[in-house]
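Dissemination and training. As part of the outreach component of the grant, students in the summer workshop were shown how a complex can be specified as a set of sequence lines and then modelled as a single object. The example used during the hands-on session is reproduced here so that future cohorts can follow it. Participants entered these lines:
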Amino acid sequence: MTKKKSKKELLNRNTESVNIDITQKKFRLSDFLAEKVIKGVAFLSIAIIILIFVFVFRESLPIFQPEKATVGLVTAKQEVQETYGEVTDSLSTSPAVQETYGAVKDTTEVQEQYGAVKDTTEVQEQYGVQTKDTLGGIQADDTYTVSSGSGYDHNRAALRSLGTTEWVPVSEKPRYGILALLMGTLKITLISMLFSAPLAILAALYTSVFANKKMKEIIKPTIELLAGFPSVVIGFFALMVLATFLQSIFHYDTRLNSFVGGIAMGIAAIPIIFTITEDALTAVPKTYYEASLALGASRWQTAFFVILPAATPGIFAAILLGIGRVFGETMIALMATGNAAQMDINPFASVRTLAATIGAEMAEVVFGDTHYNVLFLIGSLLFIFTFLLNAIAEFYVKGKLLKRIQGK
Amino acid sequence: MIKNKKIDIKGVAIEGATLLSALIIIAIVVVMIVVIVNGGKQQLSWEFLTSFPTDGMTKGGIFPAIYGTFMLVIIMSVAAVPFGTITAIYLTEYAKENSVIAKTIRFAVRTLAVIPSIIYGLFGLGFFIKFVGAQVDSTFYGGQLKWGQPNLLWASLTMALLTLPVVIVSVEEALRTVPKDLRAASLALGATKWQTIWKVVLPGSISGIMTGTILAVSRGAGEVAPILFTGAAYYLATLPGLSDQFMVLGYHIYVMTTQSANVDQTLPIQFGTTCVLLMLTFLLNMTAVILRYRIRKKKNN
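and obtained this result:
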């Protein structure tokens, strides 16, 4: 043993009698297991992200497929017969008929084919004699009336109506135009960002550059408290107090509109924008500040022309995450925006956001229905959107910020 | 003196504008608290907190909602805190700072933090209820509907996912405050890595784990969107079990303000409930802020 006075050697000398060779790692089962378990659990957060995407998207998948059992009327004789039989048994319920007629897009087409069964012998051959036996003339008429109302492919129709502006999910012919919802969401996002971004960024600038220690100790905990406000409380405040207050100032007609909703969501987004901006501003090296002051610039010039530009990527990230928060905000949207899906640029008109639509309608929808699938599709859109926003904020912005501050 | 200090009007105005923004934010917070507490204070009484709603929800207390919130956050914490703590331990103790795995996990955690809460609700419905619950039902209950429907357990687990990043971030911050010397000393004395973590690092960061738990509870108590369709109920005459739907404060506020037949008549209850929820989250957050402040102070020393 050498007489070097390193820590290890000292330790070894003291415990010479035990004679532990610390250079060689001894295998310990408990340690090995602990490490494996910890590693496994740590991967859980990645797994959750993947699971969320898979399961939210999975529930929306049926909408991309034509409805099941859409085998052509003429080609699959057996199928047709079976279903006709069912319908004659229970005329009131239409799902079975719906499925059979799935492939047929036009109801008049159905009529023609159906008529053919009764009239011409040509089609009779295709359907087989049994069809004629099981279906009497009157019964056939009844079947037709049942099928005519719902006799088209719900999924195709829903998919085709997605690009329209009408959101009428509960009706004879449901339409799922998400454009009005998208527009409402964007409008609210814009209003809330116009309100909260300047406020939060200026306040962050004040806190990190101008404020003395005492003010800092007031502002920061206040922001943290605001961050802890449940969104339902902010929504309640907007619904009960803010809406009335703003209406008395601006004198608009609808009490709950995108303006009120936007302001309320802005309040919810302030803590996010503030915190990230403040972090970015504090990350700017102090030497920048001192150099600028030494060159004769005043404090505000330093703040606006040196520190703020240096932290731009961080502020950009803050706004992106603020947008993400507002985009997916549900409770405030449900309570304070009026919930009317309409295309209107007027900020004082009621709107309905994507997230609010999911929140309001999911509880009343039939599981597995087309409407249900469309709501999950909206959910997937929201997920992808916020995921992308976060990814941009994370990789693009952070890289730029580091480059700029380290002067590379 | 090189230059007489003139009163720079532009400078004062701009500094004033930044100060004003900060004051506006503070004012918003103060006004919200004052209005809600003012509106709810006469409603607050022991009876309001401990009795069931009566007369078709127009009178009575909010006890089931408080109980539901309580159960929700407890089950949620039991699920979220261990997993969050272990993930944080992995990130600080095992993973190399710049390894791909650590970076990916960090990115995943931050993504989890920004995913809209309504998406968690959809996930809870699609995964816990329609997938796990339905599987359990068909395996153990012969297809009878028991777990394949919205209930307290699935709502709590959904909420646990939502609060997981809160726990991870707080605990990670606390773990980093444990000095490297302590770890080195422990290892030098012959303790294994796991013994070091269990006996030295974790006890040293217990206040950080507390902070994370409190913040998670505060978040979980206030969120409504994830439980809208994974278990929250409008009214229940009995206290819920694991497989029942449940009442919860936030959802109670939402239904009372938007779906109630007589909104004006129930106004005091609405204010009272909001006041209770606000004070609950307020207290929790205050505790967390103070705890965190002390952790940061310790770090700086």
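Chain A touches chain B through 97 residues (CB under 8 Å). Students were then asked to discuss how this feature might be tested experimentally.
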